Amino acid sequence: MIVSPLDYRYGREELKSIFSEDNRLKIMLNVESALAQAEAYYKIIPENAYLDIRRVVEGNEVKLSRVKEIESEIKHDVMSMVEALTERCREGKNYVHFGVTSNDINDSATAVQIGNAVSLIIRDLILLSKLLSELIKKHMDTIMVGRTHAQHASPITLGLKFSVYLSEITRHIDRLNSAKSRIVTGKISGPVGTGAALGEYAMDVQKKTCEILGINSELATTQIVGRDRFIEYLSIINNISTSLEKFATEIRNLQRPEINEISEYFNAKMQVGSSSMPSKRNPINSENIVSLCRLIRSFIIPEYEASIQWHERDLTNSALERFTIPYESILIDDVLNKTIDLFSSLYINKDEMLKRAMNDQFIMSESVTVALAKNGMPRQEAHEFVRKSSMLAYQKNINLMEALIENGIGSILSHDMLVNAMDPTKFTGMSGKICMKVINESENMIKYIEGGLYD
């Protein structure tokens, strides 16, 4: 019986496979093998014992079905794996899991999983960055109405709007990349963090084991890795989800029929928008992104609680972390790829954008104020002059230029100067330069990541 929507509706197999039950067992066995290798290196266990353990692990001799069979009897998941591994060993059977506790294996395995997930999430972010860069280049001069408080504001360009998005994504890549050394961290230090069972080489064994696994190692710990690391990871994911929800919300709003400036792709040949209204073209992909992002952010609350343990450790983190880390990782990858699909097939109605910007003269009130101030009228007086003219235009249901002329703007600005001040295409400021700076920042970050400096 399948219950979780992750099993039949959400998430990509590439990410879900990282957190699958089979892969989890495989990683835990790899931790046991890496531990044996480190212990043999420091002559804590015989070399042939390590080689035997490695043989069984690399030969995939330990089966999940056998581990579950043992667990049904002894009621301990990690010890079930240990016993199943021991069963298949010969020279190594007396040294499996030597000198460690369950959470040395659990937390180190989780670190490996998180590391693999981070690599895919960064790859997703880079793909989205490259897509946004292309959209910015294409729409650097695409004029549209800016909006504040859901009201028309000064003109902007679509390229600038997307530059804000790209700049956020670049920061998320930087955050996740720079945090990886803290997040992807394991431990091999026993039930209370002293490493006593491993003797004088305990810290060396921990470092060596984690190096073999490709993860960092804790310095001081209890029975478990510090959960501040998991909280940092989930916090970055939550931050990413907030950006993606913001982007999708903007698409939803701009798709409203009364705006009709941007809309997501709709397959007119076969897609159904509504079971009752055949005409509907709903922004379902954007809404799906928003819905999942809200769920993603909810998972950090139990992880906050999990970081508060009794003494050197209790079990209150165990069950909830089977949800928090896998679910957030899988879902953020899912919504990132949906966002990539969304932006790669956007319908952008440039004509509607330009028409709205040209038809609403009120969006040029800032421009007119600046023009008046530059031509001798004190700035505050200019602001008040344009404000009163705007109120007059609203009252008389005339356009702003007519109201400005009626109020005597001709004594300060010539007709040509006023026309120039009312042209939205001439009041986008540094938008183009900002766009290029954001693109360059993104490209430099991607070069840094793809140049092999991220591993």
Could you characterize the architecture of this molecule?
This protein folds into 3 domains: 12-88, Fumarase/aspartase (N-terminal domain) (Fumarase C, Chain B, domain 1, Orthogonal Bundle), CATH 1.10.275.10; 102-139 and 154-349 and 433-453, Up-down Bundle (Fumarase C, Chain A, domain 2); 356-426, Ribonucleotide Reductase Protein R1, domain 1 (Orthogonal Bundle). The mean pLDDT is 95. It is built from 18 helices and 6 strands. The strands form 3 sheets. It has a two-stranded antiparallel ribbon. Strands 3-4 form a two-stranded parallel ribbon. A two-stranded antiparallel ribbon has the order 5-6. Helix content is 63%, strand content 5%. The protein is mainly alpha-helical and 455 residues long.
In short:
This protein starts with 12 loop residues before the first helix and ends with a helix. It is mainly alpha-helical. The protein has a two-stranded antiparallel ribbon with strand order 1-2.
Give the helices and strands, then pairings.
Layout: H1 13-16, H2 21-41, H3 47-58, H4 64-74, H5 77-88, H6 102-138, E1 143-148, E2 151-157, H7 158-183, E3 185-186, H8 202-213, E4 216-217, H9 228-254, E5 262-263, H10 284-298, H11 300-306, H12 318-344, E6 347-348, H13 350-359, H14 365-374, H15 379-396, H16 400-406, H17 415-421, H18 431-453
Parallel strand pairs: 3-4
Antiparallel strand pairs: 1-2, 5-6
Helix pairs in contact: 2-3, 2-6, 2-8, 4-5, 6-7, 6-12, 6-18, 7-9, 7-18, 9-10, 9-12, 10-12, 11-12, 14-15, 15-16
